[in-house]
Amino acid sequence: xxxxxxxxxIVFALGxxxxxxxxxxxxxxxxxxxxxxxxxxxEKLAKTAKSCSYCLYFTSLLCLLxxxxxxxxxxxxxYLVCILGVIYGITGxxxxxxxxxxxx
Length: 104
What we know:
This protein is mainly alpha-helical. It is flat, with a radius of gyration of 16 Å. The longest helix has 31 residues. The chain starts with a helix and ends with a helix. It has one domain.
């Protein structure tokens, strides 16, 4: 059962890598929130897509590490991945909140 969960996690991580790579290239920008009808300026989209691609790469790494923890049946590695994910999430929320307070 753990191998099935690990396989699905690996497929999800590969999907995140694919979307992150396309964002890095400047493609698939309509997937970004608020850009459904392609109304945002290209400069703003390029900057947002680049930062989103880095987030997707890191999330993909966390997914791959959690799949490795599932395959190796190593709960310590899984705890480490969860702690890294929580720290990353809190950091992202604090950064976005600081930016929102600064720019309104």
